[in-house]
Structure formats: structure tokens, C-alpha cells
Amino acid sequence: MPIKIPDQLPAAAVLGEENIFVMSESRAVTQNIRPLRVLILNLMPKKIETEIQLLRMLSNTPLQVDVDLLRIDDRDSRNTPRAHLENFYNDFEQVRSNNYDGMIITGAPLGLVEFEDVVYWQRIGEIIRWSHEHVTSTLFLCWAVQAALKVLYGMDKQTHGEKLSGVYRHQRLVDHEPLLRGFDDEFVAPHSRYAAFDGDLIRAHTDLQIFAESEEAGVYLAATRDGRQVFVTGHPEYDALTLDQEYRRDLDAGLAPSVPVNYYPDDNPANPPRATWRSHGHLLFSNWLNYYVYQLTSYRLEDIGKVFTYDHKN
């Protein structure tokens, strides 16, 4: 089954060329089924690129998924045309009264910024708390994990002295977790962050179940016991060239970045990189949609949130 997105969204053409089944809004109105509703809060600067990456991941499922896009505020973007934001994105006030089966909150380039200095910190906290009443399962990516740990558990951010960038090997820690169904015992995933996610600290300060971890990158995948919040500290949605683009951007900015580890063949940036994490990335998103969203959500959207109890520390 397809994902349903606006007819003119740029991602529609890109995914169509990749032979990914995308249903236009005009066609979807003839479907007599109850699709999943997923809200994406896109905090990344290059919003169109991130849209394509996430929609590609959401398409790998037999479920029909209706996607709404959300922006954190109405400030101008240096990387995304205003017309695109006005045509395809909602402000929070436009969706505040809605319920959603699933929500994704992306990362953001804020790894070295203190929470209280983030211009939209109060709003992101409001949205995270709102999601617990209006969303069946929320998936946090990279910086959004830091934000959620602070909002939900009061955990202060931890940072590395140097940016963690590259493709790291992880070990699955549980055998029969649906979120990891189909995963190898060891798998790789890309990271691009200053944030540190120490397993001992997370175990000491939260009730999260940790499903996958890396000796170099720390905790990769964790979730609440009710499946309402899923934490992914890396970027399984990244394209093959995303880390390369970030590396060369930092080079051009004079930041002297380290070469992303385990990414370029022979660790040589002159060699074109290849994605080695794509299969596990697709599995993660399809498992989340199936087991943590579709299997748990209420058939009636208006009932979402009524059967859950808010039990995290604020």
C-alpha cells in the first residue's frame, strides 16, 4: 500500500522515479479504508531532502499512510523556499486539535546549543507533551532524542568533545523485540551528532528498554515499555551521500572535520560512499509502523490518547 501526500509535493516525483508507490490526494479520496495518519515535525534545515528520506522509509509497508508535515515556527528558512513551507507545512495551531497514529520528530543541527538557548525550546517541549495525549507512538531521531529525554525525564544533555560522524556497528540486545524483527545480531547505522547517549546513564535515569547499542556510538535504539515513545539516536533515513555532503559542508566552513568513520571505501573521501545501512533502516521504520503504530492505535482517531496514562517524569 502507498503513502498519501499532496499531489505537488516534490517528493512525489522523486519517489515515483524510484518506483515507490505514492498515492496522490486526488486518488486517495476514492479509497474506502482507514489509513494511518502520521505527522512529521521537520526540524532539519534542508526540509525537502529530509521529506524525501523519511517518506521513502514510510513507503516500505503494506499500510496506507497519510502524512502531514509540521514546522516548528514561521521563520524564514535559508534552505527551503517559503512557498514550499506555506504550501505543504502546517503550523502547530493548525494540528493542535488533531489526533495521529504516529509522529516523527527529526534531528536538528543544535548539538552544541544549550536547550535554553534554542529559540523554539518552549514550543518543542509543548509539542512533545502534546504528542503523548494525541499520538499513539512518536519516533524521535537524533537531536530530538536529547530533547525528549530532557522533557520527559529531566535528563541533561551530554556531548562529545568531537562530532561523532560515520557508520557504526551496533549489537541488538534483545532477541524477540518486534521493533528489531528481521535485524541481524550486528548491524550498522549512520550517526552525525555531538550528543552522547550513555547506556548506564539512560538506565539509571529512565525506565526505557534499550534494544541496540554500540561500543563507539552508545545507545542507538530504545523505547518506553508501552511503545508510546521510540528513540533512535542515529540517522537510519540518511541517503548514501548525506554524510558526505555534511563533511564537505564543514570542510568549506573551515571547521576541519574528521573524516566520517567506516564510511568511505578505504576511508578515503575521494572514493564515492555506498549505503551499508539501507536494509536495517527500512526494517526499523516498517516495524515501527506495523507493531508500534498499526497494532496499537485505536480505529477511531478520536479515541487516541484516551486509553493511555501519562507516567513519565516532567
Automatic annotation (TrEMBL):
Gene3D superfamilies hit by this protein: 3.40.50.880
Keyword Thylakoid: no
GO biological process: L-methionine biosynthetic process from homoserine via O-succinyl-L-homoserine and cystathionine
Gene Ontology cellular component annotations, sorted alphabetically: cytoplasm
Record key words, sorted: Acyltransferase, Amino-acid biosynthesis, Cytoplasm, Methionine biosynthesis, Transferase
Reaction catalysed by this enzyme: L-homoserine + succinyl-CoA = O-succinyl-L-homoserine + CoA
CDD domains per the UniProt record, alphabetical: GATase1_HTS
Active-site residue numbers: C142 (acyl-thioester intermediate), H235 (proton acceptor), E237
Compartment annotation: Cytoplasm
A single GO molecular function term of this UniProt record: homoserine O-succinyltransferase activity
Parts forming coiled coils: none
UniProt pathway: Amino-acid biosynthesis; L-methionine biosynthesis via de novo pathway; O-succinyl-L-homoserine from L-homoserine: step 1/1
Residues given in the record as substrate binding sites: K163, S192, R249
Superkingdom per UniProt: Bacteria
Site, as annotated: Important for substrate specificity: S192
Site feature: Important for acyl-CoA specificity: G111
Function noted in UniProt: Transfers a succinyl group from succinyl-CoA to L-homoserine, forming succinyl-L-homoserine.
Listed name of the protein: Homoserine O-succinyltransferase
Designated gene of the protein: metA
